[in-house]
């Protein structure tokens, strides 16, 4: 009988779409803050990424309760809600885009990332960062801010899971299960005999060490 008879293995693994990104540019921040005070939002055009349609919400003077900040959120587009089956885990990362030139290249990076759950029963609930960056800090960051404008990159990765039966039971899995292989293949025999020799060598070495210690103790005055 095959050593794998009656033994099967399946694997559950996290899966992920390829990370895709969208860049949102904001021009004329001072005027936009006047037109959109705290709690008022701007919204990008819909875009495709990671197999779904999204929008980015930007609050140029902060979301409610977060005045003085740039607030950024990712929203699953209303028209794409039917494509969501239950809860969807999404890795979201917003990053400031450096201005071209030497100064931009040397400026420290600024980003925020988190895994959010987009639920079909709570759409289009936005997920993001109400305190992404203080407006004052942004305006004093020439590596990001120029001519009253800046740009933000949004990286999106949809996380899932998959369960499948392994087509072949691997030797290492048999070993973990404590299943002894009785196969007649010569390569396999040599593998197992080598492992057995290793176990026997360890046992013999331990016995010799133990008896040696006992002998010294027995002959000592």
From TrEMBL:
Which Pfam families does this one have? MATH_2
Report the InterPro entries cross-referenced here.
BPM1-6 (IPR045005), MATH/TRAF_dom (IPR002083), TRAF-like (IPR008974)
Q: Which GO terms describe its biological process?
A: protein ubiquitination
Q: Where is the MATH domain?
A: 19-156
Listed PROSITE patterns: MATH
Q: What PANTHER family does the annotation carry?
A: BTB/POZ AND MATH DOMAIN-CONTAINING PROTEIN 1, MATH DOMAIN CONTAINING PROTEIN
Q: What is this protein called?
A: MATH domain-containing protein
Q: Which organism is it from?
A: Eragrostis curvula
